[in-house]
Amino acid sequence: MKVSLKVNGRACEADVEPRKTLLDTLREDLKLVGSHAGCEHGVCGACTVLIDGEPARACLMFAVQADGYEITTIEGLASAPGELGVVQDAFCETHGLQCGYCTPGMILTAHALLNRNAEPSREDIVDAISGNICRCTGYGQIVEAVEIAAERLRKANAPRNARGAHPNAPVNDPAAEHDAPQEGVLEAAEADTPHGGHR
Q1: What CATH number belongs to 78-192?
Q2: Residue 11, SS3?
Q3: Stated pTM of the model
Q4: Regarding beta strands 48-51 and 10-15, do their DSSP bridges make them parallel or antiparallel, or are they unpaired?
């Protein structure tokens, strides 16, 4: 059966059995292997993807059910090949991962939280990631990573995406009269100097 999916902002087609899961379709047919198969019962969160911006278990959904929805995998969070998104970078900085198996699902869950809540409390973060099991870190560094990412996104003055919009889609502010650098973004000349131009 042919299925048309919109994944990471791109239209994709696959020929799948009706009973094939979204997770298996992403990994086997579309070669997007960042989402991991864990428990395959919807408990561990390793297979988490975003469906219209909300975390969902790809192991519990058939690919044919995903038709018409915007699907975001971990591969869709980076702004360019080889780049890290804000949440990904914060996870690396705080060592919010060890084996890395749960990390894609954890990052997507955190990304969804920060899109709907610019200033999450520690309790908000713990509640959001409670459906993602990590057997390595003890969660402390993961919570810290989400806190750091939230702070950086606030300082960057980055506009939040509309519900269902692709996370990397450009968002134009019609009220803005001209392009101005975002707070916290270095100009090219500053980026080329040691310490971001600060001595």
Answers
A1: 1.10.150.120
A2: strand
A3: 0.77
A4: unpaired
